[in-house]
Amino acid sequence: xxxxxxxxxxxxxxxxxxxVAAVPYxxxxxxxxxxxxxxxxxxxLHITRPDIDLPDDVSPHADVAYSxxxxxxxxxxSAGGLRQDERPGxxxxxxxxxxxxxxxVMGLASxxxxxxxxxxxxxxxxxxxxxxxxxxxxxxxxxxxxxxLTYRAQPSLDARLAEVTTxxxxxDYVAPDGIRHQVWPLFEPTLLAALEAxxxxxxxxxxxxxxxxxxxxxxxxxxxxxGDVSRHFLACAFPHDQLRILPYFRVVADLGGxxxxxxxxxxxxxxxxxxIAGPADAPDRHRFTMxxxxxxxxELTPTDAVDEADPVARLDxxxxxxxxxxxxxxxxxxxxxxxxxxxxxVRGVSxxxxxxxxxxxxxxxxxxxxxxxxxxxxxxxxxxxxxxxxFEPKLRSGLVISRFR
Length: 405
Prior knowledge:
Layout: E1 4-5, E2 10-11, H1 17-20, H2 30-37, H3 45-48, H4 63-78, E3 83-84, E4 90-97, E5 100-110, H5 111-115, E6 119-120, H6 127-140, E7 142-143, E8 147-151, H7 155-164, E9 171-174, E10 180-186, H8 189-200, E11 205-209, H9 211-222, E12 232-239, E13 245-246, E14 248-252, H10 260-267, E15 271-276, E16 288-292, E17 297-302, H11 316-329, E18 340-344, H12 349-358, E19 362-365, H13 371-379, E20 390-391, E21 402-403
Parallel strand pairs: 6-11, 8-12
Antiparallel strand pairs: 1-5, 2-3, 4-5, 4-10, 5-12, 7-21, 8-11, 9-10, 13-20, 14-18, 14-19, 15-17, 16-17, 16-19
């Protein structure tokens, strides 16, 4: 069983929610975050990306960046951009994108259950990114953005959430990227108890996105006294059958010293290589689309059988890594090799074409990882290769915030 508890959140007034809420800190670079927050003093990006208000020659990880974030949080509260609810609640949260809706609920997950393996992960964290979030949370005494959790869909829980969101939401707006966000605060004590009981029947939560936030929050919780609120962290939990994973593409800066034709010849030892007319999404599992800088495009399929019994080895990201990127291009550690970059599938294959004209020698479109694969790997306490999943839409930060001091 897992625990998921209500809390008295800090939130923007409904009329200001669209001004305060922002994209997650880690999906934009400094210039993009600065542009999004330009002319909007209430934007949460001033807190989650304090480097946008510092000179470019100041590191985002300098001490001043964290003190700047705390000052920005205090300014936002003083300006009335955040206020605390008087009683604990859950917060139903719906996102709409391209005719699809996903409905989840925000509450507090348990750091103890993270360490016990009931809040399951599927990827490793990078020490420097985890340390950044740890310092940010400790300095602010707050979790500014939710960890994105999923669970195996439970009809009774999902039906209850659907029922309580038939009323008009308190917050309802469409962000500049076209995604609609809705929030229903839920305060009625009997309902809260029923939702807590529903969540307690789950075997596990699975981290969909936000591994660094979760790891940092769990470290904060581990160091807190028993019973302290900081032993819990802000999360938003969705049923797995409402979520959509997009692929995560790869681009590589060079061909490992080979000419394009020599690279294609080397590929033929382990791959069937078929020319195609132009850029296209990968059509199915174990079929890849590859583009070269010279404008040629190909479909690749592995010649050797795939071990479908191994939940990690059967992933397309694993096949590409183990059978092409490592042996042919020498990319043994994609988490640290600066020759490889990753492109979220939301940008489409047109972004691969653009990168090939700029800084990439070869680009790969992959078929998306499934939720079933994610949960099977998490249940096996195994780890996916880096950048295996891109969840879309991303959760908005700032609609609900947890402060523990």
